[in-house]
Amino acid sequence: FPIVDAHVHLWDPRHFRMPWLDGNDQLNQPYELAEYRTHTAGVEIAAMVYLEVDVARPYALLEPRWVLERAGEDPRLQGIVPWAPLEYGERARAFLAELRALGLLIKGVRRIAQSEPELDFCLRPDFVAGTRLLPEYGLSCDLCINRHQLPATTALVRLCPETRFVLDHCGKPNIREHELDPWRRDIEELAALPNVCCKVSGLVTEADWQQWTAEDLA
């Protein structure tokens, strides 16, 4: 301690529509800075990075503006990673320009691919083209994928050598079933590339929620 909390989600479903919260009474309620402070009591946090929370697309540009207001309330919020339509290729420029105009707290973007049915969704030509645009705007690319998408993701990173990538949640290994291969082999291949780093985040959600141990995560 102190730590940088590199993957923070805040939301208020009374303000933004988030369809994935439907039917989940535990999560479908406000989790803002007050709740964050309560849940992190006793943990010394020097800074935090906000990650987009998959709001309904009409709110996509409103979300980072809302987070900038939160940053005005807590100076520890020093980075914001909003959603961006990378699959639009060159047509993503207008969106990226709007993000850049919001200021330097916008550090990168994330276009979640984990729920896409195609394992190689990120290798669509337009997705690759959109991802290659990010260095022009000083933005990195967070990768939120499932473990089966690691080979295609590695290919994407190779195709975009000028783009800085951040792998979220360690690529979601199957901790619950103690099944580390082929994830272990695939993540070693990704780790060999110089333009990618990895966040140790979200591992409990891949473990047994009721009986996980520190040893499981290690």
TL;DR of this structure?
With 218 residues, the chain is of the alpha/beta class. It contains seven helices and seven strands; from the N terminus they run βαβαβαβαβαβαβα. It starts with a strand and ends with a helix.
Outline the fold blueprint.
Elements: E1 3-8, H1 33-39, E2 45-51, H2 62-73, E3 77-81, H3 93-101, E4 108-110, H4 125-132, E5 140-143, H5 150-159, E6 165-167, H6 183-191, E7 196-198, H7 214-217
Parallel strand pairs: 1-2, 2-3, 4-5, 5-6, 6-7
Please describe what this structure looks like:
- The protein is an alpha/beta fold and 218 residues long.
- It contains seven helices and seven strands.
- It has a four-stranded parallel sheet with strand order 4-5-6-7, with no helix packed on it.
- Strand 6, helix 6 and strand 7 form a beta-alpha-beta unit.
- Helix 5 (150-159) runs parallel beside helix 6.
- The model has no long low-confidence stretch (mean pLDDT 97).
